[in-house]
Amino acid sequence: MMHTWFICKIRYEKTMENGMVKKVVEPYLVDALSFTEAEARIIEEVRPFITGEFTVNDIKRANYSEIFTNDHPNADRWFEAKLFFIILDEKSGAEKKTSTHLLIQAVDIRDAMKRLDEGMKSTLADYTAASIKETAIMDVYTYSGADVAEEKKEETE
């Protein structure tokens, strides 16, 4: 299944650990078919967790070819990896590099690198990791089979 990812930025007043209230903008990644659907989905996803007013500040397409999730309880950070695949041009015999971006849920950068290696084990193409950096993404909301089943049920009612 091909995913279309959108980075949605939510602006709201957050109560910090010291009790101070601060205006923050937090990015979330959403799997959606359009900008309109991304906005509706992110509002639905964050509403239970944010008290008071919030706004969707910005929505942009995100170009992630793959996302490696992690069920470890301390894996609450998201890292972006840029990979180069080396492809041999059959006609000219020249090597050609193409880049791709992946998102990895991990405990820290070492864990992200380990998860990247594990996730790429089945890849036959030669690749090199050009960079791995931590992102500000707070959470990722993918489509699940339950989401699609629920939508189909609502359409038939």
Structural features:
2 domains, 4-stranded mixed sheet, disordered C terminus, Ubiquitin-like (UB roll), alpha/beta, 3 helices, 157 residues
Strand and helix map with partners:
Elements: E1 5-15, E2 21-31, H1 35-46, E3 54-62, E4 66-68, E5 77-88, E6 95-106, H2 109-119, E7 126-134, E8 140-141, H3 145-156
Parallel strand pairs: 2-8, 4-6
Antiparallel strand pairs: 1-2, 1-3, 5-6, 5-7
**Spatial strand order of the main sheet:** 3-1-2-8
E-strand count: 8
In terms of per-residue confidence, which ranges show pLDDT below 50 for 5 or more consecutive residues? 146-157
Strand content: 35-45%
Given helix and strand content, the structural type is alpha/beta
Description:
With 157 residues, this protein is α/β, with parallel strands linked by helices. The chain folds into two domains: 1-62, Ubiquitin-like (UB roll), CATH 3.10.20; 63-136. The protein has three helices and eight strands; from the N terminus they run ββαββββαββα. It has helices at 35-46, 109-119, 145-156, and strands at 5-15, 21-31, 54-62, 66-68, 77-88, 95-106, 126-134, 140-141. The strands form two sheets. The protein has a four-stranded mixed β-sheet, with helices on one face. The chain has a four-stranded mixed β-sheet with strand order 4-6-5-7. The longest helix is centred in the first third of the chain and has 12 residues, at 35-46. The radius of gyration is 19 Å and the shape is elongated. The two termini are 26 Å apart.
